[in-house]
Amino acid sequence: MIVVSGATGRLGGRVAARLDRPQRLLVRDAARAPRIAGAQVAQAEYADAAAVRAGLEGADVVLMVSASEGPGRVDQHRAFVDAAVAAGVGQLVYTSFAGARPDATFTLARDHWATEQHIRATGLPFTFLRDNLYADFVPALVGDDGVIRGPGGAGAAAVVAQDDIADAIVAVLRDPGPHAGQTYDLTGPQALTFAEMATTLTAATGREIRYHDETREEAYASRAGYGAPDWQLDAWVSTYAAVAAGELSTVDPAIEQLTGRPARPLAEVLGLP
Questions:
Q1: Strands 147-150 vs 210-213: parallel, antiparallel or unpaired
Q2: Within 10 Å of residue 234's Cβ, how many Cβ atoms?
Q3: Would you give the end-to-end CA distance of the chain in angstroms?
Q4: Which end of the chain is more exposed for a tag (fewer CB within 10 A), N or C?
Q5: Which residue in 196, 195, 236 sits closest to 213, CA to CA?
């Protein structure tokens, strides 16, 4: 039995649709669960340990898609992991983030590190899949004026397609044993600067897109009008700062090793030949 959490989301939904094994979908809202032949549905919030434990009972392997970003995310993750241990889960596959470490420049990568450490401490067999920035979300970086703004400097990120991540996850879930104790960096086939991403977006959309390298102070000022909480502003700005620091530039062959085919470049994700 495979349990897929986050099945109403972009990544979990892709995984659930690709699996050809008995599976249970663990979702917050059962009414929104994807309709997949033969799949069971269990409803639970990550922080509700009793509901999570019930949803994970009998699971050989569980996909734990990281919870929504927020100041309480690590606590939610810990509750989920502890429930998985209590349920006797055989192996936990966790979607982490590239460069996860306690002093990562990207603030939310520190959350992933804390979650990884908690999983390790439980003794539960695990597989960590550390995703780079999503290639699918690159168009959302563009402002209404056609400009990508951020303090990314000349740094590069090995942006990765969500479809490739989903395929890699499915490969692990179908045969989890060989991947126990492993950490995989899931990246695209090349590291791109934000200027290069802008050029690719221009070719894909026919609209001129450019990159403006902000200072840290400019980055906070340009985002102040959104009314976002401080933790979210820090996350937005530190994403670019992590790229500038070279923390997301490593290109790894894990996608091809797990799926048997090369990772898709950004141009292909955007529909270019």
A1: parallel
A2: 16
A3: 39
A4: C
A5: 195
